[in-house]
Amino acid sequence: MIPYITAGLAPALGLLCFFYLKDEYEQEPLSSVIRCFLFGALLVFPIMFIQFAFQEEGYFQSIYMQAFIQTAFIEEILKWLIVMLAVFHHVHFNQRYDGIVYATAVALGFASAENILYLISNGVETAFFRAIFPVSSHALFGVVMGYYIGLAKFNPKRRNTILIYSFIFPFLLHSVYNLILLTQQSWLFYLVPFMIFLWVLGLRKVKKANLKQGAYFQKNIAS
């Protein structure tokens, strides 16, 4: 069991450390980040139950329903709700980049638990593939979600609109990822460039969040 847990956790923890250390101004308390990670991991069980229940009722027979609703919508809306309920109004959520840290922690908590269960069922030899594609994609969906949640936190006039973006964009990205896997025979040919796009997008959001926070600090110092 230990090899499965280690192989399942390692990529998620590595990615979480990477994005946590990308915060250039004020890193979040580890206790808050770990709590979000654990909340994300616990999400696996209600998500599996909901997906199984709907599938048993025959709601997800279409490939598009499976791609958009069975996985992308259910997973992203519950991750979004956890971030909103657990940390959006928390005192430690005090800068724009914090949204990325917390949303990525929730996403990677979910990805690590899902990964461990998958490795137990399919073998530890699939760990490298899982790290490169599913775990990394969940992290990057979390980065996009967290970027917009961070924007919404400090933009009360447009908060509701930006919060919609914070769900819609990762949901659509997740749906495209699923569609590639479900509809393309040579899925690797399409998935590799899509993952490169996700990494470029995610790292740009990281850079923009830090730049916005830097501008905010300079403005406060000047005033």
From TrEMBL:
Gene Ontology MF annotations: metallopeptidase activity
Subcellular compartments: Cell membrane
Pfam families in the record: PrsW-protease
Keywords per UniProt: Cell membrane, Hydrolase, Membrane, Metalloprotease, Protease, Transmembrane, Transmembrane helix
EC class name: hydrolase
EC number: 3.4.-.-
Transmembrane segments: 6-21, 33-55, 67-88, 100-121, 127-150, 162-181, 187-203
Topology in the lipid bilayer: Multi-pass membrane protein
Keyword Transcription regulation: no
Role summary: Involved in the degradation of specific anti-sigma factors.
Assigned protein family: Belongs to the protease PrsW family.
Protein name in the entry: Protease PrsW
Species of origin: Evansella alkalicola
Gene name, Swiss-Prot/TrEMBL: prsW
